[in-house]
Amino acid sequence: MKKVSILHTGGTLSSKVDYKTGGVVAKYTDKDILSMFPELREIVKIKSRLIRNMSSDDMNFKHYNLLAKEIFKELKNSDGVIITHGTDTMHYSAAALSFILEGLDKPILLVGAQRSSDRGSSDAGLNLICAAQFIKNSDFFGVGICMHEGMSDENCLILPAVKTRKLHSSRRDAFKVVNDSAIARVNRYGKVEFLNYTKREKGKLELKLINEKLKVGLIKSRPNMFATELKIYEKYDGLILEGTGLGHFPITKIDNFTSENKRTFDEIKKITKKIPVVMTTQCLFGRVNMNVYSPGRELIKIGVLGNQLDMLPEVAYVKLAWLLSNHKKEVRELIGENLRGEINHRIKDEFL
Amino acid sequence: MDYKKLGFKCGLEIHQQLDGKKLFCSCPCITNKTEEPDFKIIRKLRAVAGEKGEKDVAALYEEGRDREFIYEIYKDCNCLVELDEDPPHEVNRDALKIALTVALLLNAKIEKNIKFMRKIVVDGSNTTGFQRTALIAKDGFIETSKGRVRIDTIFLEEEAAKKIKEEGNKVTYRLDRLGIPLIEIATAPDIVDSEHAKESASILGMILRSVDCIKRGLGTIRQDVNLSIKGKPRVEIKGFQELRSIPRVIEIEVERQLKTKNLKAEVRNAKKDGGSEFLRPMPGEARMYPETDVPEIIIDSKFLKEIKLPELKIEKSVRLEEKYGLRGDLAKEIIDDDIDFEVYVKRFENVKPEFIAKVLIDMRKEIKTRFNLETKPDEILEYLNDGRISEISFFELLVEKAEGKKINLEKYKQPDDLESEIKKIIKENKDASFNAIMGEVMKKFRGKVDPKKVAELIKKGV
């Protein structure tokens, strides 16, 4: 029987109603969860530990490092690790673990729930069972997210850690792959169907942590922006721009209503001189192409990175922090290198 | 059956659906859909521990069955809320207002803080695995011919999905009904015998129907009966669709209880033949826990002031009876059928209100039973109002109209001078008896004249 470690971090999956406050809080312990889903023990040999009991919104780089270190420890004696995690920022954590755990040769699956485990209709059970079944019945290695494929309690998908985003606030199938396709489909009985999995060469697992002192920003473009909103990032270590469309910002003065745009442009220019600034698109689907319109070309000219890339803003954010921590001198070159599958050069029609 | 001697204890639980929008989303309350669903989803449920940490007995019973639930979904009356894919929205204030109106009509005390709870239901009839329910009022009463029946509690809750079929471990539910606001009224065990149960249910039904936005039609109201006799555990019988079956089901259940040893507390389902069958064990105490997705509602005096109490059906009916001298049963049916009687009275002011009532109820029913036709009385009432026909030819004309025939008033025209016509007949039949003359007159003018009037004239002429 394969040995699997379950590391709990909290979230809806570990939550139940708090009768004092009336809200839902992360309260279940690792033992509670195992006793709730006894069938897990019939699939794999389980070792379970509580790392934190928190909602994922409260996480920061320190938690990513902590989690990575715990996984590193567990992998010495385990065939794989399941991480129970809040869903709100699960895609950030998944990306962070992908970058930190370089040379990973075992499966790491993040599992969450959109309905708390104290409800009869919770999706937690199927997500956990499918994650265990997938580890048991496949030779996959790398980081993935295991969540419902649809609104039915039938199949789960194994989603690529660096190409997946929470796209719905409440549905069970909120996690969707963007600009790529799911790795595999798995059901509660252990049937595994690979959909898009290219095995990488196995390396030697090495922890490449994120510098916890780093400050990286992420700002979304919108009409009526002010230069002062960007000014704060002068003191940051890196900045991700979430532009509109192909990667645009309001930087052009076209009439006497738009003099602020000129100031915004000057501010971005000033920041790019100090720190790496990477453009992404708030469309999520599709790639950045700053060659098409002249404001885009202006941005390239002043040193904004990320042209031609299809990285999710959240993944670019984590990647930039990781590059600043581990490859500070090569950030400008490596940001466009496909290190963990975060960049797809061939976007197919069926991805949207 | 000597109910007193048996230590008979009985209470009712009434469930009434409301119209409008659903309780926790903006979907319309459409039920009994017959067309194919737009799509289906499959779900499983797990028994979960309640507030006290123990898994509920009824919940465990359901878990043991390891069932798979197939939910049929309609896009015009389902959204993500019914699919348990979106948390509940804020409670439907209109539904709350209707429920509070009912509570006030039942003389109940309204709760100041209304807090929704999750009642664990693992038969799959709720996609969430629980039913959202809130106590909105308690300690009310109704007056009956056998004394006061107390109302213990009034809940506002969401209706469950309708079961379509069950095959092996697969159960199919349809989600059109899920989430419709439902008022649950539970009486104290003050009901003294089987007939009294029927009477109490009928009074509660009358009060409910007096309020706007109460759903009508098959399945929109359900009566459950809770009963026990001395030395036996409580049994709940669910699913009475008709009031008149209540006494018989109660009698049969009491007989069954008297015969059965080691009786268990259980929920039973009312059958058409008057008996009942085992449905599931009685739920334990650990069924409820707070619905934390719905904030508590504070009922303030401003909100209560917005509630206007309607005239009860029975009051309306008594008013019609007294004002227009109608038969009690006619007045009741006019109100039950929501006929705006006073509009008819005003429009046809030369016609006796009592006759209008007979046209609208008695004649309509007679023509329906005898000819299976729907009546359209307005045109004929107008002829009567204008004096172009008499009451005596009314029924025949109503039938002709219902048959879709063209109305020929000539046929029914009263003779211009009835008096001289009668005199003529008396002259022609000098020695004939009253009855014989009457017969002659009626032979000639049947359907056109009022026999009472003819009799009067003959007497006068003789």
Short description:
Chain A is an alpha/beta fold and 352 residues long. Chain A is built from 10 helices and 17 strands. Chain A has 2 domains: 3-207, Rossmann fold, CATH 3.40.50; 216-334, Rossmann fold (3-Layer(aba) Sandwich).
Nearest-angstrom radius of gyration of chain A?
A: 21 Å
Annotated CATH architecture of the largest domain in chain A: 3-Layer(aba) Sandwich
Strand order of the largest sheet of chain A: 4-1-5-7-8-9-12-13
Structural class of chain A: alpha/beta
Number of strands of chain A: 17
- State the share of residues found in helices of chain A, binned by percent: 25-40%
- Beta-strand level of the residues of chain B, as a percent range? 15-25%
Number of domains of chain A: 2
Subunit arrangement of the protein: heterodimer
Mean pLDDT rating of chain A: 94
| Terminus-to-terminus distance of chain A | 39 Å
Number of helices of chain B: 15
Task: Give the helices and strands of chain A as they follow along the chain.
Answer: EEEHHEHEHEEHEEEEEEEEHEHEHHH
Calculate Rg of chain B over CA atoms.
29 Å
Write the layout of secondary structure elements.
The complex is a heterodimer of chains A (352) and B (462).
Chain A: E1 3-10, E2 15-17, E3 24-26, H1 30-36, H2 40-43, E4 45-54, H3 61-75, E5 80-84, H4 90-100, E6 101-102, E7 107-111, H5 124-137, E8 142-148, E9 155-160, E10 164-166, E11 175-177, E12 184-187, E13 192-194, E14 206-207, E15 216-220, H6 227-231, E16 238-243, H7 259-274, E17 277-281, H8 294-301, H9 313-326, H10 331-334
Parallel strand pairs in A: 1-4, 1-5, 5-7, 7-8, 15-16, 16-17
Antiparallel strand pairs in A: 2-3, 6-14, 8-9, 9-12, 10-11, 12-13
Chain B: H1 3-6, E1 9-17, E2 39-44, H2 57-63, E3 68-73, H3 93-105, E4 109-110, E5 113-114, E6 116-120, E7 130-144, E8 147-158, E9 162-167, E10 170-174, E11 181-187, H4 194-209, E12 221-228, E13 235-240, H5 246-259, E14 266-270, E15 276-281, E16 288-290, E17 297-298, H6 301-305, H7 313-324, H8 328-336, H9 341-347, H10 353-371, H11 378-385, H12 394-403, H13 418-428, H14 434-445, H15 451-461
Parallel strand pairs in B: 3-10, 13-14
Antiparallel strand pairs in B: 1-11, 1-12, 2-3, 4-7, 5-17, 6-7, 6-16, 7-8, 8-11, 9-10, 12-13, 14-15
Helix pairs in contact in B: 4-5, 7-8, 8-10, 10-12, 13-15, 14-15
